[in-house]
Design a protein that fits this description.
The complex is a heterodimer. Chain A is of the alpha+beta class. Chain A has two helices and five strands; from the N terminus they run αβββββα. The longest helix of chain A has 13 residues. Chain B is α+β, with helices and mostly antiparallel strands. The chains are: A alpha+beta, B alpha+beta. The interface between A and B is medium-sized, with 24 and 21 residues. Strand 5 of chain A pairs antiparallel with strand 4 of chain B, so a sheet runs across the interface.
Chain lengths: ~90, ~130
């Protein structure tokens, strides 16, 4: 539940989602669910020349299981809150 | 076969397991400080690495060094000051020798999905 809660705080922020097939998509976080499926708006592919078929995609749903990384905007990471939430989750959650 | 016709042996094994379990939970409760510092299960090692530099080996010949800020039971993680290393092997066209290449990149904050994690190693001494 920790990361679901955290990703909900990123709504409206710009993130880059890197998929397991090496495709990297930058977009505005629209929503996230319990499986960490992600919906992005105003998307653009990081390496457009390599993936020209993605040029017309403006928003998309990404299945959580195909995500490798999410690059987070530095301003939206409060490490103290994350540490506390992690300890709480490790103890009993 | 219904539950009531099961061999009594199964039931008693389960009973004794439950008893043992409940007895162990009756033991003296360790103080919060003690609980923080002991490693009883594998994930405790990760817990003790919170806010420390760790090394993570991932699927696809990827490695990450970074400061651990959050994790969960799937080993989903948020790391800071991340250095990712991707190792690839190329074969020289002429000599057919294997050339090992490493690509590195730095990222300020990174969420790593747990299903790609192979191992996590606690604080790096440098």
């Amino acid at each position: 539940m920790l990361f679901y809660s955290y990703f909900k705080t990123l709504k409206g922020k710009e993130v880059t989602v890197e998929l397991k097939n090496d495709l990297a998509i930058t977009g505005t976080m629209h929503s996230v669910d319990q499986y960490l499926n992600i919906k992005l708006n105003n998307t653009r592919v990081v390496n457009e020349q390599k993936y020209p078929h993605m040029m017309s995609v403006r928003n998309c749903f990404i299945r959580g299981s195909v995500v490798r990384y999410v690059q987070l905007p530095p301003g939206s990471v409060d490490t103290e809150i994350l540490h506390d939430a992690t300890r709480r989750e490790a103890r009993g959650g | 076969m219904t539950a009531s016709t099961e061999p009594s042996g199964c039931v008693s094994v389960q009973d004794s397991f439950c008893q043992r379990k409940s007895r162990s939970t009756c033991k003296r409760q360790p103080s919060a400080r003690e609980e923080e510092a002991t490693v009883k299960e594998p994930l405790d090692l990760v817990r003790l690495s919170l806010d420390e530099k760790i090394y993570v080996k991932l699927r696809g010949d990827r490695e990450i060094r970074g400061r651990l800020h959050a994790y969960d039971q799937h080993l989903n993680m948020i790391l800071g000051d991340v250095e990712e290393t991707i190792t690839s092997v190329e074969i020289d066209d002429e000599t057919y020798e294997e050339i090992i290449k490493t690509n590195k990149r730095m990222l300020p904050y990174l969420f790593v999905r747990g299903d790609g994690v192979i191992l996590v190693s606690p604080p790096l001494r440098q």
